[in-house]
Amino acid sequence: MTGTEAEARRAIELNPSLPDGYNMLSLVAWIRGEIDEGTRLVETCYRLDPIRPLYVTYVGMVYFYFGKGERSTAALGETRQLAPAGTYRLMTEHALLKGDYDKAKELLSTVEKLQPTHPWVTWMKGFIAAQTGDREAALRVVGQLAESRGDVDRLNSAGYAYYGLGDMDSYFSYMNQALESRVTNPAYPMYCPLFAGARADPRYQKLIEKMRQMHWPERK
């Protein structure tokens, strides 16, 4: 058991109603690939604190990522008032997965009004542009990301944009750079349906194993 996991379990022992401890354990479960346990822990967070934006969107994301479409739609429908930006981000991803690009652009525009400087807004513009055949616009986004040296999410964002372009070499290159810089968001490469196409690539398993070892090396 890692120090992070032990601390989370100890926090829950001291206060079983503390959602932060369950949240940390859910992240441990996701990294390990324990989907059912991770889902249960996220649902516990939401039950304990149903108005915190983090947990409000987290539960909708989990349902979406693991194929519980109806539950995800229902959850997102309930969370727009409490966490509008996070909700609309997930709704944009929903629309993309369905191939509804007009709806995705409309939702992206809503997110941009709410969070104009959020890294997600930048890479999603490139992703949608790439998916709709506007390679020039997608490459402009990649160029903008390359210039944003102070942005810790730059490496992840550039990787996502390159995935949209179908450039798997650049995608894995940036994912590995993000991992080495310790700024990787494991949820996207591991579970987001938008990036499912990369999981058949031999480099994917190497990336995930490296990710697991880096985040929680002592899996006992």
Short description:
By secondary structure, the protein is mainly α. It is built from 13 helices and no strands. The longest helix has 14 residues.
Commentary on this structure:
This protein is mainly alpha-helical and 220 residues long. It has helices spanning 3-14, 19-32, 35-48, 53-65, 69-79, 84-97, 101-114, 119-131, 135-147, 154-164, 168-180, 187-191, 202-215. It has a domain at 117-220: Alpha Horseshoe (Serine Threonine Protein Phosphatase 5, Tetratricopeptide repeat), CATH 1.25.40. It contains 13 helices and no strands. It starts with a helix and ends in a 5-residue tail after the last helix.
User: What's the architecture of the domain at 117-220 in CATH terms?
Assistant: Alpha Horseshoe
| Cα gyration radius (Å) | 18 Å
Low-confidence segments: none
Instruction: State the end-to-end distance.
Output: 6 Å
Mind telling me the CATH class of the domain at 117-220? Mainly Alpha
Strand segment count: 0
The percent range for strand residues is under 5%
Order of helices and strands: HHHHHHHHHHHHH
Helix content: over 70%
Count of runs of 4 or more consecutive helical residues = 13
Sum up the overall morphology in one term.
globular
**Helix/strand/pairing category:** mainly alpha
Biggest sheet overview: none
Compute the average pLDDT.
88
For this structure, the CATH topology of the domain at 117-220 is: Serine Threonine Protein Phosphatase 5, Tetratricopeptide repeat
